Amino acid sequence: MSTPTAPTTDWTRLLLEQLEWHWAHQLRPRLEGLSDEEYTWEPVPGCWSVRPRGRSSAPVQAGSGAFTIDFAFPEPEPSPVTTIAWRLGHVVVGALAVRNAAHFGGAPADYASWEYAGTATEALEQLDDAHDRWVRGVRTLDAQALAQPCGEEGFEHDPMAALVLHVHREVVHHGAEVCLLRDLHHARTRAERGQRLL
Hints:
Strand content: 5-15%
Oligomer: single chain
Structural class: mainly alpha
Order of helices and strands: HHEEEHHHH
Shape: globular
Helix content: 55-70%
Number of domains: 1
Number of helices: 6
Distance between the termini: 83 Å
CATH topology: Four Helix Bundle (Hemerythrin (Met), subunit A)
Radius of gyration: 19 Å
CATH architecture: Up-down Bundle
CATH class: Mainly Alpha
């Protein structure tokens, strides 16, 4: 009598569904119509953001183009509040583009050499490009590839699946922060309009 074969689990599909459900049903639709005003809105003084070169007072101003992103090393305690522009820059570069370069044939990327988006439209184009390359790359990973050590700093002894989970958590939680900032901006705008009508 033969032993029944246990069903195999499609880990690649499950990992992608973790990100893609959130991307399609929550995050990306909530970013439609993002305005430049929202993109750079600073809800409190002293925010970190993406700014025209030479306009930042942050200790570190990273970027190779006309815009730079604010940083400090070590990071201040407490961490500064960040704008939508900063959060999208972090997701595009730190979560996605750097990993696309390391694992999926993407162009070299790091915070210092990136050309940060000066407009909301450009930022969303960068986000879509980085997301799409990442998803195509993860789709090529079978169970064996997901079990291999990824070799990345901070994940030296972890399998590639652990890095995939980490990147997806980064996109989900920073994306939620971006959506909250949009909600706060809309509420502030509605309140200001209401005050002007009184």
